[in-house]
Structure formats: C-alpha cells, structure tokens
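Database export, one record per block. Field names are fixed; values are copied verbatim from the stored entry.
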Amino acid sequence: MRKSVAHLWHSAVFASCGLLWIASLSYAQTQNEPGRSIGKVSTKGDLIVMELDDGALGKVNLFDLTGHTVRFTPDGSRYRVDTGPLQWDSDYGPELAGAEASLQKFAFPFSGSVWRSFLIGATGSIRFGISERSIAHDPYGHRDGGIILDRFGALAGVAGKLIGKAPAICVFLKPRMSGPHYLKELSDRVVITWDLTEPFGSLLDFTWIKTVNLFQVVLNRDGSLVMSYKELTAKDAIVGIYPVPSDTIKPVAVHFSSLSRKDGPFAAVYESFHYLVPPRPQDLSCTIIKALGDKFDFLAYYSDFRMDNQEASTPSDGPIGGNITGIGNTEHEQTLEVLESRCTGGRYQLGFAQPVWVGSNEAQEGPPEGAPVGDIHNITFYSRQLGEGSPEGKSSPYNYAVGHLGHEVGHRWSAYVSAKINSEAISLGSWPHWAPGLHAPVAFPYSLPVEASTLGGGVWQDNFDGTFTQLRDGYFVPATGYSYLDLYLMGMISAAEVPDFFILKNLRASKDVNGQPIFKAERTKVTIQDVIAAEGPRLPDVDHSQRKFNTGIVVVVEHGRSPSHELIQRANGIRQQWIQYWETTTGHRSSMTANPR
C-alpha cells in the first residue's frame, strides 16, 4: 500500500530487500521549500505535456557488465579492480534454505577480519559480522539477510552511504528481487550464485512475467573476489565492496567497465546503476500551475522514461490545499508556506510525487495474454470475476491505474480520524491507512460486489462466537471504492447516512472446522457521532462541500522529445477511466473532469 508523501518519510522500512543502513531522505526537510519550474508546458487534446529542461533529472547510468567479470585483487588492505570476459562456474552446488552460510574448509579475509560465516541476502548482497538468529530481532535485517534499503531510497544517492555498522559486499543489490541462491564450497574458494527475478504481476511492478537475473561471486582463500554476470534483465543495482568505515576509508564511486589494475587501490569502491533521479513534487506542481494557472485539484503524471525507484508506482504529495476541518490531523496544515511551495493559492490539493512510467504494469490497459495468475493482490487473480459483467468477457481497462489514483486522491481526506468512545480516544487507522480490523465496506463498489475501502480496513463478517471472517482485505487490487466513513470525510454524504460500524482489536488468526482462516478479536462498535466527538463536525458540511473536481493528467517527456503514441494513448485511457471511476465510487454525487484549459 502507498503512503502519501506528507507521511511517507516517517514510515517503516518496506519489507523487500536487505542491510543496516536506512536512507536519510531529504524530503522531510525540503517539503516546504519553494518549487520551481523544471520544464516547458503545452497541451495536447485533454492532456498536459511537460517537456523537461535539459538535465533536469540528471543522467541515467544503466548496468553494462552483463557478460563480464569484475575481479577485486587485494593490494595490502585495499583492492585493485579490473574487468574482463565472463568467467562462470556452471556447477552451483546446493540451494541455500536460509541466509546463513558457514564455511568448513577455510576462512575468507575481508575488512580486517577472517570470516567462517556470513549472511547471503536474497537480493544480491553479503553481510558479515552478524548471525541469522540475531537479525530476527533486527527490524532492518530479518527480511532478507543482506543489505536493506529504505523503501523509496534512490540507488544513485544510497550507494555512496552504505558504509555503516557492518562490512558488506554488493554483488548486484537490487531491492525486491526474489529467487533461489546457491553455495558451493571448495578447498580454496566458495562460489555463491543467485538466480533471481524482478517482482512481477502487481501494481508496484515493471513487468507481468518473470525476468532472468543470473550472477555469482567467488570468494577466494587469498581474499580476492570475483563477481560475474551471465544474464541480467535488470539494469539498475548497486555493485561494490563496503568494509567497516574509518577515518581513512571512504567509498569511491567508479565505472567498473573502465577500470584496470593500474587504478586505485581502493579501500571501498562501488558503482550505482540507476535511472533518472526523481523530481521534487513541488517542482512538478509549480511547473504546471505557473504555466496553465491554478485550476487543478489533483495532478497525475505519466512518463516515457523510468525513475530511480524500485516500485513502478508512486506515493502522493499532499494534502496541500483546501480548507477542511473535522477530518483528523492530515499533517499538512494549510499554511501560506505550504501553499506557496506548490505555487497554489489553495485550489491544488494533492498530486503524484513523481511520474509513472508508461511501460509499467500500472500504466497498461491490463495484463497481456498468457500472464501468469498471481495471488489475491494481483489483477490476474480476478480475471474471470472482472470479465463476467462485460460482453467481451474482459475487465474494464486500466484497473491498476484508477485503483491507485483513487487510493492516493482518497488520502486528501482519509485516513486520519479517531473516535471517542466512553471518553476514550480510539485511533481508527494505522495512519494514514485504516486499521486492518476496521469494518469499512465500500458504499458504491467499482470492481467487485463486495469491496473494502481503498484506504484500508476490511470487510468483516461477525460470526457471533468471538470469531470473525474476513470477506475482503483493504488492498486496492482490483480497484476499490470508498467506505461510508470515507464519503462522509470527503463531504459526499451526511453523518446521518453513515451506518454504524466496528473495529476489531487484537486480531489473532485461527482456522474453523473446515480449515478455513478465521480471526479471534475484540469487537468495538463505532458510530459516526463517536468520530465527530473526537474530531468535530466535518466543515464545510455536506450541503456546502466541494463536489466538482478537476485532475490534470500530465505526460512528461525528456528534453527535446515529443510524447510517443503509446504514452498519449495510455494517458488518455487512464483519463477516461478515472472520470468514470470517480463518478461510480462517489455514487454520482460528485463529478470529475480532466480539463487542462
């Protein structure tokens, strides 16, 4: 699930990749700095075209070592590095069941110590000096075993800061990859091989099918190491060696493909392979508003290039404008500083934090023929159900895109409120999403007959024996609508129209007599008056709230380029479905336009 940028940088680490350093992102400190224009703006039909200034987002540096081997040879306590033709050991040895590797025949010298055990990360890294048992209590290490990065840590900035609390080797560190890894120990070396795929099929992914990423490292008894890259679909990763830092050890950024043994020697050396640097969200909004005027409530961006982000989707920037009370603490107070930083007088309320790449799953009409069926958070899981109401037997197009838009725009009002019950304030969310135990059925479903709020929660059946069955969880795939509570906070329905609901605390998973999952929990009834008692009434009220909204759909291209046919076609498709989604999920009590003029 996504978090709006206003709350994003306070969140925990995303459970996908592996080490010990958490990116210190500058956004929290710069979110209210003034935005500036970073491109030229025009219109094309009902779309906005933003052509970026030359170099506005830096330069790409894509992986160029496929079919090559990089050798690190000790020179005292440092290393000489050179690149040559591929050296590959096709005998991988047994697959590792976990992360921990123990050597029986020799110890590997690295970072001033010798190691008979280390952790092999599932996403292409090795971590020394800690055991698999000890990282069970490490909030940043237990999910992978190797190096963990912040959820939205850009590889271009992260790579130079990985020197931290423990020595590490990045063979091909790319978050969110998965697959088997193997270890073969010989008398003079150990061979570690990864056979990984990038994540596939979900809204957050760049591909619908598995990809091949086959690489290995050889750790030699003499302290030398060899990284080899046989087949890599992925083009972004961190490659390098990171011993324990000291006053004399600073990481050096290089281009491995151009190094020879006469270069260096290096104590810590790395290369970051990455896509374009993500823009600041205030620069995106200011570019549009300065050019076309302050006429947009929301802004969504789609591009023909990828960003330095391990997720194909994007968080949001907001809430920004609009003067609404009684909806809880949305963190962004509507101060003049905040409004001016986005170049708005108060009309603009929320937007994507960065563009969504046109080739990502989210920006495509739907899964291609033959895409494998995924889990319950993958649109392919619902293909038959979604096609039942269509004469063509297909689901409505751009389900991922409108589901994400609906979720992020919903953050303008939700999910921040508490309820006051018997003089006690009870939070209804794991902010800024509804708590998993909140009963939050959708009032006007979009994809399926029964849906939970796009902002979280679930649809819960009370079995009246202290157990509850979850009929739908709160993940917005397929695209889901808004709960009665959401619609009240949005100003679409009155307090009197919100039925009583409940929240489940201390959820404990169990199984019924048929082996089906059920949950034991404590149920607390909640009424809308309990919410009003905690937050005050929603103002403006339902009779005076905003009902007409305008979204700017923006296609972003690099300097000197025009938007491709594919980009225009998909952005227009998303625009059309977004208007339909909004009117459906608000029960036709509100309208959405996407008018750039």
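Remark 1: The chain has a mean pLDDT of 90.
Remark 2: Residues 41 and 460 are 47 Å apart (CA to CA).
End of record.
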